[in-house]
Design goal:
alpha+beta, 7-stranded mixed sheet, 5-stranded mixed sheet, 16 helices, 28 strands
């Protein structure tokens, strides 16, 4: 057999993408298709007092203008962000208040610019502070995690600890900016709705549309053939798909809505800012006696979303006394939502930075401090780990990185105006899996067809699932075809939480293994339609586990800090992971490197500012919200351990899409401290912040 799990098989859709034949949501030509452009609210809070559409309707090519007064009525959604054009209320700046439909994209844009909206404005509040009077403790943080967990007497233990760290960190708002903006094409015909959308899960889109438009799900088909990234922002339906369906119903024509990139921060979610306070107490031996991680974040007034940033502290280190708390303030801001490694990315940045500070207080090597605090069981649940090889990742990473040659003293390595430093951080991400269905068919020509409503958001899911099927069937990879990305296929959960391959692969494995057994018993030629076997992993994939299941990793960074400009350059990034069985070495490395690159952006370039006066994110496009490019890191490597874990799924795999981002920002921040001797506690580490810190340090030394 060739190309089975683990082999570096080429992505199946690669030629389509580089050749331009891969069709995205806006690229399905239909007779009479129209284009639509939304009109965002220009106030931070209030009500629409009136909409003048006359000038817009006079623009050549404009077909219709939808407002809250005349748009088709929707049932009340579970997600209030989807109640578009249903009422005059404006909960935040950027909320859509009209939609212009036209023959061309240019006419729709011109029409949208001609719409005049009058507002009755109200006072707004968009500024998050830890002492905000509206801060409260919610019942839960995202993912059903309790908002508060406490063990022992963390305050008393902290007070009596030999070494103590009491620090505050800040992570700013961050934005999902996938290469393909949120886009949907909708078409009604004979009471049936067909939608092509850029989504991480077409099943969820169909269910939501069925509820909104009071339709049976079987009368709706949703496809996501190719998706140009999502990073969580396409994990649930967004306004584009609702607007497209509304406009198509109103006009009787197919309609495409492609959200302009500058509108995305206000309507597709963002990573909410998080204010962290950490108190770590330890004995002289480096073992934690107390761990307290408290975070404050914001949510919108229309939908509660609480970034679970204190949850990783419940997993990482053994501390007999601990407390983790989430607090949130409801403000007049756009609704935050999922962004790659929600909770883990900001939470581990703060925790791993604080662990580095603790190592400095103790005069110990940062790796050794982490090793000494390895738990025997998951600290929060008390469950044994199905597998935990964090120490091995740290040791292997140290060997590959040359950590032992490091001078531990901060600010001692220099190359002309450049200060040089290295840093380390640990990473974790939970193993998540959901029930799926899949069908596998043997065809008379000797090939096999595997069908499942998985979504390939650019990760290579088509390829990896074909490899899983080929191994279960015991046939060469080239004999297995796969269909994904449509609600007409066997149902499967969305691509999110690093759970896609684990969930879909389980069903594909079971369907193909069942088909192999059936073929072994079959005699004679196959019937013309072939033989098919289906699998449904309900009751197994979603069964409660007796084990705590997580992936782990170690990140290492080497930086050069320019003392003249304050610029930070990353010379090397290294990640070593323990993520179960790696199913495709090529696509896995791509995922790890992609996550690390996103962590690089989180550390150095990505950050958003909420304008208090206007209630708007000032960095709303890629001209002002800076994402890293190839030149921003000289060398980046990803490696993994050969980890075997039989308590996961039939493939023995863990999710890999998100863990790459988790420890990268902290490793870079720790390296900057090692280079400069200055501890920066707010991201991103832009030249102005770094230069100010260097100048302040010089001034203090001069005194």
């Amino acid at each position: 057999m060739t190309g089975g799990p683990g082999a570096p098989a080429e992505r199946r859709e690669g030629r389509e993408k580089v050749g331009g034949t891969a069709r995205y949501a806006a690229e399905f030509p239909m007779p009479g298709r129209a284009q639509a452009w939304p009109v965002p609210a220009s106030v931070a809070r209030g009500r629409v007092a009136g909409v003048d559409t006359a000038a817009a309707l006079a623009v050549p090519g404009v077909i219709a203008v939808l407002t809250h007064e005349d748009a088709p009525r929707l049932a009340e959604p579970d997600d209030p962000t989807l109640a578009v054009l249903q009422s005059p209320r404006v909960p935040h700046r950027g909320w859509f208040v009209a939609l212009v439909v036209a023959e061309t994209l240019e006419a729709a844009r011109a029409g949208a610019a001609a719409v005049r909206v009058a507002y009755d404005t109200e006072e707004h509040d968009v500024v998050l502070t830890a002492s905000h009077p509206g801060v409260y403790v919610p019942e839960e943080a995202n993912g059903g995690h309790p908002a508060v967990r406490e063990q022992g007497d963390p305050d008393g233990a902290f007070g009596s600890s030999t070494a103590r760290v009491d620090v505050a960190y800040r992570v700013p708002p961050l934005h999902n900016h996938p290469m393909e903006p949120h886009t949907s094409t909708a078409h009604w015909e004979d009471g049936r709705l067909t939608v092509h959308t850029s989504s991480q899960g077409t099943g969820a889109v169909r269910a939501v549309l069925a509820g909104l438009f009071d339709l049976p799900e079987e009368r709706i088909v949703v496809t996501a053939e190719h998706v140009g990234g999502g990073f969580g922002s396409k994990g649930t339906p967004r306004p584009d798909v609702v607007l497209a369906a509304l406009a198509a119903r109103r006009t009787g024509r197919p309609v495409t809505v492609a959200l302009p990139r500058r509108y995305l921060p206000a309507v597709v979610g963002h990573r909410a800012p998080t204010l962290h306070r950490l108190r770590l107490g330890a004995g002289r031996d480096g073992r934690l006696t107390s761990l307290v991680h408290e975070i404050t974040t914001h949510t919108s007034r229309i939908k509660e979303f609480v970034e679970q940033a204190a949850v990783p502290a419940r997993v990482m280190y053994a501390a007999p006394h601990s407390r983790t708390v989430h607090r949130v303030a409801a403000l007049d801001v756009p609704s935050p939502s999922w962004m790659r490694a929600p909770g883990e990315a900001p939470g581990m940045y703060a925790l791993e930075s604080a662990m580095d500070e603790l190592a400095g207080e103790l005069g110990m090597d940062p790796i050794e401090v982490r090793v000494r605090n390895e738990p025997d069981v998951e600290p929060d649940s008390g469950k044994p780990f199905s597998s935990r090889h964090l120490v091995e990742c740290l040791r292997e990473g140290a060997r590959r990185f040359g950590w032992d040659d490091r001078d531990p003293r901060p600010g001692t390595r220099r190359d002309g105006p450049l200060l040089l430093g290295t840093g380390v951080a640990a990473a974790t991400y939970p193993v998540m899996v959901g029930p799926s269905t899949a069908a596998a068919r043997a065809l008379p020509d000797g090939t096999f067809l595997v069908r499942i409503n998985a979504t390939d958001i650019g990760t290579g899911a088509r390829t990896v699932l074909a490899q899983v099927g080929a191994e279960a069937l015991g046939v060469p990879l080239e004999r297995v075809r796969i269909e994904v990305g449509s609600t007409e296929l066997p149902s499967a959960p969305l691509a999110g939480g690093s759970s896609g391959t684990a969930s879909w692969g389980w069903a594909v494995h079971d369907a193909c293994a069942g088909l192999a057994r059936r073929l072994a018993e079959h005699t004679g030629p196959l019937p013309e339609q072939g033989l098919e076997t289906r699998a449904d992993t309900r009751g197994t994939a979603d069964a409660e586990s007796d084990f705590a299941r997580h992936a782990f990793g170690a990140h290492f960074a080497e930086v050069a800090v320019d003392t003249v400009t304050g610029e930070v350059r990353v010379g090397r990034l290294l990640g070593v992971y323990a993520a179960g069985r790696i199913l495709n070495a090529r696509t896995a490395r791509s995922q790890f490197v992609g996550g690390m690159t996103m962590g690089l952006g989180m550390a150095l370039t990505e950050g958003s500012t909420m304008d208090a006066a206007f209630g708007d994110f000032t960095e709303s496009d890629l001209a002002s919200y800076h994402v890293p490019v190839h030149a921003d890191v000289a060398e980046i490597e990803a490696h993994w351990l050969d980890e075997e874990d039989s308590r996961l799924n039939p493939m023995g795999s863990k999710g890999i899409g998100e863990i790459g981002i988790v420890g990268t920002a902290a490793a870079i921040g720790n390296a900057v401290h090692h280079a400069t001797g200055v501890r920066f506690r707010e991201l991103p580490l832009t030249p102005d912040r770094v230069l100010t810190g260097l100048l302040d340090r010089r001034a203090r030394k001069a005194v």
